[in-house]
Specification:
mainly alpha
Length: about 220
């Protein structure tokens, strides 16, 4: 009996159609889960979010929530909602960084000991509670619950030829890098993890990342 040639154009086309269909089903259930989780999450988190907002306002002057502009899917502008974790004059404080701090910032886009972060902000970042307002972004379809974390333009340039691939999916509230590495890896390792997710994303992998995120958040592991 002749063995079918799996490399023929017909077989390749059939596989491509099947893969495309699977991706369509995946995106449907992913969006449905996003809507469900964001709605339930906003209801449950309403009181904690109100308390956080008040604590921020009491500690330092300025807005409790702000927009941080990132690059979204297909290069669309993404106004990311966040609880304010820094002093309002953070940009001015950045100009006073030491040469060592500037070098660390240019390399990793973060500092191990950032003087711009408030006391309440340190707690919010350690527990990732500063990200709670992004449930609104998820509900609007600007974010997914799971996906590569959105970046600013300067970070996007690090991806070089992989920029289109990185921005081919909806960014996430959490993701592979966020759940398993966070601040415990280099920026290059972070990029590898994000691109690996983009290439092999699946519904079950998303579920696994969600549970891993909960565990990492409870332990406060790797958050800065």
């Amino acid at each position: 009996m002749a063995i079918p040639d799996t490399q023929t154009p017909v077989v390749k086309e059939q596989r491509a159609k099947k893969k495309k269909g699977n991706r369509r089903v995946y995106r449907f259930f992913k969006r449905a889960l996003d809507i469900f989780i964001s709605l339930v999450g906003l209801v449950i988190a309403f009181l904690p979010m109100l308390i956080i907002y008040i604590l921020i306002k009491v500690e330092t002057p300025g807005p409790g929530i702000y927009l941080h502009h990132r690059v979204g899917k297909n290069y669309k502008p993404l106004p990311l909602l966040k609880f304010r974790s820094m002093y309002v004059n953070a940009d001015e404080m950045m100009e006073q960084f030491t040469p060592e701090q500037k070098a660390e910032w240019e390399k990793n886009f973060k500092l191990d000991h950032d003087p711009r972060i408030t006391k309440v902000g340190q707690f919010l970042r350690r527990t990732s509670l500063d990200e709670l307002p992004q449930l609104v972004n998820v509900l609007k379809g600007e974010l997914s619950i799971v996906g590569p974390r959105p970046v600013v333009q300067e970070e996007l340039e690090r991806y070089g030829e992989d920029q289109d691939k990185f921005l081919s999916v909806t960014p996430g509230l959490t993701g592979y890098w966020q759940a398993y590495a966070r601040s415990n890896c280099t920026y290059e390792e972070r990029m590898e993890m994000e691109l690996h997710y983009v290439e092999d994303a699946s519904f079950w992998w998303d579920i696994k990342i969600m549970f891993a995120t909960v565990g990492a958040t409870i332990r406060g592991r790797g958050a800065k």
